[in-house]
Amino acid sequence: MKKLIAIISVLAAGFIGTAKADITMSAGQSLEVQSSGDVTNVSIGGSLGFAFSQDLGNGVTVSMSGLTFDNDVAVVDNIVGTADTANTTANVNVVGAVTVNALVNQVNLVTANVVTGGGASNKGIDGDAFEQISFASANGTLTYGADVEVDYADTGVGDVSGSDLTAVGLASSDSAIALGGTTGNGISYTTSVGGTALKIGYLFANGGGNDLFDSSADANNSTVAISTAVPVGPLSATIGYTAASAPAGDTNTIGVSTSMAVGSGTLSASYVSVDGTTDSTEMGFAYTAAMGSATLSIGYQQADTDGQDNTNQTSARISQSVGTGASVFAEMINLSGGTGTTLAGETSSIVLGSAFTF
What we know:
Distance between the termini: 5 Å
Number of domains: 2
Largest sheet: 16 strands, antiparallel, barrel
Order of helices and strands: EEEEHEEEEEEEEEEEEE
Strand order of the largest sheet: 2-3-4-5-6-7-8-9-10-11-12-13-14-15-16-17
Radius of gyration: 25 Å
Helix content: under 10%
Number of helices: 1
Shape: globular
């Protein structure tokens, strides 16, 4: 990651001024190989991101992120966009009567822009760019915008895998937690009181991140969330609560996690309870330790949804630094218990990869 100090001059009618902004740029590249059953998947991708911050000179610092390009194993070309549509207007010869040329042109419809195979076109590049802005002061940080995330109750620690490729092709889980609408248009505020960290979030509409929405509409689905982190002796405890509304029913979720130093590493545990249309619980444990310049993590979690078999998941990851900003890693995941009867899939996966950050 490199930090660039840029001076931006703005000249416009009725306004002449100079603004100084810190521009943070980050980039990365990864190569990953997954083995799952008889399938071998290869993922090659990169990332590029920009963030902007500026001191207003009154104790408040404004920051904003945007133009993030990242590797997504589920999207063609790693760019999410709107598919082009076919131009089905025939190039008809309108001079004189219908001729052979006209008939040929009726067959040769313009279809070059049609996207096939479920991919996305290059019309849209990171539609969430510049959707959020934050104001930081000595009292805390206020953020507002679209696609604000308030999934504070999702405190699960049992999944230590870090690659999106690891879960590709795996069977669906019979039991899994669903917190309801935790992303949308809204605000969040983080602060600290004494030694206690506090987060509060509210979504005006949790159905998505549209730039334009009717805040007075009866059909709005709002979400309220709060989280607090409290030191308790040698432990660090976090409690999160989320209440999301939806036409199908409200969802109330509470999550608790704690961690403490054990030996040369950290032991973590969590419990999440979801009260909704279908009730679910999830408990998890994880242990992370340093082994020289390598980091080893092992995790276990169990999900229990009413009317479904329990799903057990074991995961492990080891990462080794091979230089500044460069690392190689290996990770695995294994599912047992209820792993879905509708969608077929494997129950275990191994991923080897390398990552570079700049």
